[in-house]
Design goal:
Elements lengths: L14 H8 L3 H10 L8 E7 L4 E8 L2 E8 L4 E7 L14 H9 L7 E7 L5 H12 L2
Antiparallel strand pairs: 1-2, 2-3, 3-4, 4-5
Length: about 140
């Protein structure tokens, strides 16, 4: 099992740091982060070091609602979305990869929330993540 990247609280999160840490999947990460805050994807990003997980995460929000969390790993980045039983009810009807639907169905709840974690290595995978984020935000 690989270990999450960006574990030093003293880091300054910059595009150069992200590029050096992520390597091959940096183009997908760069495109994802650049798309945030656009008319198509009006989400805000905030990088913070979280002491409980001892790592940097990027919180993606829409207005005051947290939509997703981004974490960096050696071979991919993860976009985690968390749904209640009610809010996740529409996921099977979304036009997303069947593997993501199956991951959601088989995911173990964390308290009252059920996770859907997308592991991203290539730009084409972002389409489903954008769709899920818009669904979660209700836009």
């Amino acid at each position: 099992m690989s270990e999450q990247l960006l574990r030093d609280p003293a880091l300054e999160i910059t595009p150069d740091l992200l590029k050096s840490e992520t390597g091959r999947y940096y183009p997908a990460l760069r495109d994802f982060l650049n798309e945030m805050g656009t008319d198509s994807h009006p989400f805000q990003t905030e990088w913070r070091f979280y002491k409980d997980g001892k790592a940097w995460l990027c919180k993606i929000s829409y207005k005051k609602k947290t939509v997703a969390w981004v974490s960096l790993w050696p071979r991919h980045f993860k976009v985690g979305l968390y749904f209640t039983e009610k809010s996740g009810g529409g996921i099977p009807a979304l036009e997303i990869d069947e593997g993501l639907k199956q991951a959601y169905r088989s995911g173990k709840p964390i308290g009252k929330l059920k996770p859907l974690i997308a592991e991203i290595t290539k730009k084409p995978q972002l389409r489903d993540v954008y769709l899920l984020m818009r669904y979660k935000a209700g836009i």
